[in-house]
Predict the 3D structure of the following.
Amino acid sequence: MTTIRFTSRSGKDFSAGESGDRSVMEVIRDSGVEDRFALCQGSLSCATCHVHVDPQYFDRLTPMGDYERELLSSSEYQVATSRLSCQIKCESRLNGLHVTVAPAD
Amino acid sequence: MSTPAAAGAPFGAIPDNVPADRVVDVDLFNLEGIEEGYQEAVKRLSRPGGPGIVWTPRNGGHWIITRGTAIADVLRAPERFSSKVIVLPKLAGEKYDFIPTRMDPPEHGPRRQVINKVLNLREMRRIEDSVRQTAIDLIKPLVARGACDFSAEYAHLFPIRVFIAMVDLPMEDAPKLKFYAQQILRPDGVTGEEMATSVDNAIKGFYEYLSPVINARRGKSGTDMISVVINSEINGKPMPHDEACSAIANLLLAGLDTVVSFLSFVMIFLGRNPGHVTELTNNPGSIPNCVEELLRRFPIVSDARIVANDFEYEGVMLKRGDMVQVPTALSGLDEQMNVDPLTVDFHRKNPKHNTFGDGPHRCAGMHLARMEITVTLQEWLSRIPRFHMVEKHRPVYSSGMVATVENVHLQWNADDTVPAEGAS
């Protein structure tokens, strides 16, 4: 079990125990707290599952691909630790990961 | 299902790999019950406990995916359900060569990335104000009239004006381009050969029109959508001329027909459901979320895939080269995907749908479509907050790769409208 923590767009904190084959996007989506989130459902063709990753976890993530970089650059809310949560698997080495859902573009 | 009629698409032979109990009589261009609504007619294809895939001998013979929960899986499996042919009937589909829609991974990816570049959220933010102005310019003259054919006087004009501006082409060319798009999506003709000729002519029309435009913009620094796409590199090399024609024709095909149709479906619904209109006017901030529920309830696209290799699926053997129709409407309207799916519920949490498809070919224009729909509702409802359908004019539905509806007569009391800004 990997503990994944996230703060919603409205500032509420959530925590979930996850297995490694799911993505952080699925965790956030299935919590049902966000509207218009992950509109492409993980097919890497929008940027609506954009999260800001806490800096202490950022370097542990699998590096970004070109598509993800391009999609993120289209967001008005991109920061240095921005990622698309559909590209982050809930692996055990990320236990305790905390992300904040970026505002909707 | 009715017995084969003399009219409509010819009824072909049933191949050996199709079990008799999977055969239905469905003409995708003439759906049974469509006079009551396209989505309702598609929903009839799927029955609880029924098979997940059926076969119709119409339109060259093809399978139809009928299980809503399977739509996304099929679209996400290009190695089995290939995009080499996506248009029905297959004879016509073999003429259709637009990229990147008829490519599979990995060749699809780099070309799709070029298209994403002109349709991403940043681009949408950049053009939103002018899109909004286009909507306002069309709605304003209607307000005092108290009635309109929404399809002819708004839906057919708005997305096309937006798109023609994005590609920087003369507005007077729009009818010709729209005609070509329609001849691909709902081709003239009854037999496969006739439809193949219609599709082929439309594709040639697109290419003849676009070839000089692309030559003129090649190597220049234009910022319109055509210039940006054709001056992009694919795997480090300039885009060849024929690929550029094909990619731009693909954009025009997608941009000139789909939102046109969707907006009319939405206004028919709102014109019959004043309670839903009140929900939107009481809380305009909810409109973007409500658009998502409307997208779920009124899907219009139903393209196809070609079977890449023989394999077993849902209890039948699919043969390499078989065509499989994928009605995206069945996913959002499936009871297992969404509770009470025919009801429009603006409070539904995360409406699930495949209205924009799924997998590698998920609609590249989805951000534009969402914006056009949202802006239309915002600008319409802020001026015409109460309106109704004029039921003596029946909407006329037609089906194909993209379903459409025409003759959408709306009426309102001019006293209920909001006067134009600046009017005394």
